[in-house]
Amino acid sequence: MAQSIASGSSSNGLGYSSKREIATEELVVEKSGGKAGGKGEDELEIRIEFGGGLHLLFSQQPRHTVHLPRHTPSPAASSDPSPEPTASEAADNHPATMRDLIRHMKRTILSEREEMFGEGDGVRPGILVLINDADWELEGELEYELKDRDEVVFISTLHGG
Amino acid sequence: MAPTPCQLCHTARALVKRPKTGQQVCKTCFFEVFETEVHNTIVEGNGIFRRGERVAIGASGGKDSTVLAHVLTMLNHRYDYGLDLFLLSIDEGITGYRDDSLETVKQNQVEYGLPLKILSYNDLYGWTMDRIVEQVGRRNNCTFCGVFRRQALDRGAAQLAVDHIVTGHNADDIAETVLMNIMRGDVARLGRCTAVTTQSEDTIKRSKPFKYAYEKEIVMYAYFKKLTYFSTECIYSPDAYRGHARVFLKDLEAIRPSAIIDIIHSGESFVLDQNTQKGMKAMQTCLRCGYMSSNDLCKACALLQGLESGMDRSALHQKQGGDTAAPSGHRTIPKYERHAHVPVSAEAGGGAEGIDTPLKALAIS
Q1: What's the Cα-to-Cα distance from A43 to each of A33, A91, A96, A140, A149, rounded to whole Å?
Q2: Which residue, of B235, B253, B272, is where some domain finishes?
Q3: Both B246 and B308 in a single domain?
Q4: Cβ–Cβ of A134/B231 closer than 8 Å?
Q5: Which end of chain B has less Cβ packing within 10 Å, N or C?
């Protein structure tokens, strides 16, 4: 729900007041594999920030850090019944992409109303995505291959004016 | 993927793909084209502003009006429009929604050095939205809010003695409205909803400088400029009808981004047949409060009378009888008077003077 603007708030252009402590202490680190937030060698650390009220769907937290496997089994290796042709063994794993990140987010940190965030493999029309401050439409959208410490911002434009 | 160079300056890295043109531009060029396009909307034709005009920016604390306050303050300096700018906010009385966003407006007031006026439903109508929802329920409460807000903006503007109200309606909003008016068959509104400026003889001029600005670019602009805005959903039921139009439009935009501007263009090309226009109701002033109205009582007075009588949804279908005096004991809306800064015309504020005195005696609040 709504937050009040604390005196220590700063502008972030994201439609919520970022109180100072959020940046330092309230960063939600998703615990992966019982390693209490630690990142394994084969994992990517991705920082996520929500704007335009989207944080309401993610435990009310505007900032999250998630750890994602560097490689994800391709659909062929999973239960997908209509796999792409996978000739070589290398195709069994692919480097983690935005598609994998969004799937991971839905599974781990999305706390409510999935239909307000996701649609199909991607995000709902009207949600802007920036990867390291660039419009994801310039970065290949769902096909973008994530790098360690990438920063991804999701901003909803769906209400308020 | 190699970084794409900006298609305008060919040096910096492109960070935004413009929905209107597909152009890939860097941050600096994006600011430049965004601001220049708003300036072009402002000066196109005869221009929407007059030098020396007092202009109120309808400010909600949300993204559109925050970016508008920022851009208009800047353009007023850059191009020397010679405008006196004000912030005008309406407090609907929605706890946990408007009270928080008004804090943002107060921050904007400081950042841009603009005088701020806040007018509340409670002062004006004697009812907050919280209390209205308590009485009428969540269905249809948007009708009350919409009718009351429109009038409140005009009244606030009259109190500030401004000549002109600008609002943050963007291209997406206008395209939505075109779709809604087509689906509702509302030809009168369809005819005027795409106009950058609307004015009838007894209303304060209203303009939409963001008429051609895509919502995506407004949000990107706020993000890159790190502007303070507030974003929460209204806690009462959203305008469901607009919601449908909005989702549909966003789906269209995903397939073809120019759809938004194309729909606005269609709306602009629509011409209302002269005979049809003649057959429509002429505007008059509300016999109770003096605000413009197509009936003896304006919508706000009719809705208020319903609330005061303890009615619920029936207030929406209020019969317009000949009885224009409020039932005794009912609160009424203060008389609408325009304090024009420059005398707009000889009849400014004069239209309803004859009934002013008897009604004052009836007004309770």
Answers
A1: 11, 19, 10, 21, 10
A2: B272
A3: no
A4: no
A5: N
